[in-house]
Design brief:
oxidoreductase; binds 1,4-dihydronicotinamide adenine dinucleotide; NAD; 3-stranded antiparallel beta sheet; NAD(P)-bd_dom_sf; Malate_DH_type1; binds oxaloacetate ion; Lactate/malate_DH_N
């Protein structure tokens, strides 16, 4: 359904050089996702400047990452421009972190503990995303925003409303990152089919929480019993809970999410640099269903999301989940809009 296979990164270490200059800012860069994501961005030949921003720890994270021998420059800053920054003596603050960024990746905010839903994070993370996106509106209004902070189903509409209020909303440039759902779908289907998961690209549509995550397993052509289909579908929908429970109070997926965030970011950079046929899923403003924001394969280009693609045929089983999903997704979208508009 979508053509961007998820790439390996190991071969990237120690390579360098990219023709196009691209600054990537990671907001929340000292966190569980932010640190490995920043490291992977440092390895990417598509990143020429890496900006690590967080409320704590970023001078240290940036100093550490800056010793990795790739061609990009690394900068680390805290909210207070007068507080220490990396390199020592460089300008700190959100303005310095964002100015000139082509892509801003946002994994800032609190993660889940066992027993919580992603929506339980709303009260804390909604205002974090709102504040950071206000900064983006001011300092890098043309950047593509890749929002990781949960609940993605609501934080993306919040980001859009903030940008609209500032008069700089471009629907091509505001994305929720749902790549981890595809990573999980490929991994679990690879195990089921007995094939290398990196050869698969299972379409996953909808949103990024529980039953709003809908893998379209029928489009893989794999044979499975009704019980296998149900087990695989539910495992993909609740893959995040599997990690939250295994981490037993120490947070949620960080390493697999860092990989997924890197894949998303690098593909956006490739498209911004003019590479053709970059198609990958994203949770974006959409008119292909009644939900105002919806995750489906998108074609990326020099302006961001050039085209929101359809998702093909659903079988009866998938249609059942789809019908259950839409009201829940629409409610979470409205919750984000109401928060931002009040
Ligand atoms: N979209 C997805 O597929 C996934 C989303 N997530 C979400 O990503 C978020 C981050 O998760 P983790 O990295 O595990 O959490 P974490 O707690 O390890 O890191 C979050 C970081 O955000 C920073 N932060 C908090 N407020 C900030 C602000 N105003 N400005 C800048 N930085 C700020 C914290 O200081 C911390 O370093 C959570 O909301 C989590 O639910 C996690 C996994 C997958
Ligand atoms: O489950 C969580 O809270 C984190 C997340 O979004 C995921 O792993 O998909």
């Amino acid at each position: 359904m979508f053509s961007s296979k998820l790439p390996a990164v190991a071969s990237r270490a120690f390579t360098s050089s990219s023709a196009v200059k691209a600054k990537v800012a990671v907001l929340g860069a000292a966190g569980g996702i932010g640190q490995p994501l920043s490291l992977l961005c440092k390895l990417s030949p598509y990143v020429t400047e890496l900006s690590c921003y967080d409320v704590v720890g970023t001078p240290g994270v940036a100093a550490d990452i800056s010793h990795v021998p790739t061609a990009s420059k690394t900068q680390g800053s805290l909210p207070d421009p007068e507080a220490g920054a990396w390199p020592t003596g460089s300008e700190g603050g959100l303005k310095a972190a964002l100015t000139g960024a082509s892509v801003v990746v946002i994994p800032a905010g609190v993660p889940r503990k066992p027993g919580m839903t992603r929506d339980d994070l709303f009260n804390t993370n909604a205002s974090i995303v709102q504040t950071l996106v206000e900064g983006c509106a001011e300092h890098c209004p043309d950047a593509v925003l890749a929002i990781i902070s949960n609940p993605v189903n609501s934080t993306v509409p919040i980001a859009a409303e903030v940008l609209k209020a500032k008069g700089v909303f471009d629907p091509k440039k505001v994305c929720g990152v749902t790549t981890l759902d595809v990573c999980r779908a490929n991994t679990f289907m690879g195990e089921h089919m007995g094939v290398d998961p990196s050869s698969l690209s299972v379409p996953v549509i909808g949103g990024h929480a529980g039953i709003t995550i809908l893998p379209l397993l029928s489009q893989t052509g794999a044979s499975m019993t009704d019980e296998e289909r149900e087990a695989l579908t539910v495992r993909i929908q609740f893959g995040g809970d599997e990690v939250v429970q295994a981490k037993a109070g120490a947070g949620s997926a960080t390493l697999s999410m860092a990989y997924a965030g890197y894949v998303f970011t690098e593909n956006v950079l490739k498209a911004l640099a003019g590479e053709k046929d970059i198609v990958m899923p994203a949770y974006v403003k959409s008119s292909i269903t009644s939900a105002e924001y919806f995750a489906s394969p998108c074609r990326f280009g020099v302006n961001g999301v050039e085209e929101v693609l359809g998702y093909g045929e659903l079988n009866e089983y998938e249609q059942g989940w789809f019908d259950k999903m839409l009201p829940e997704l629409e409610g979470q979208i409205q919750k984000g809009k109401d928060f931002a508009q009040k």
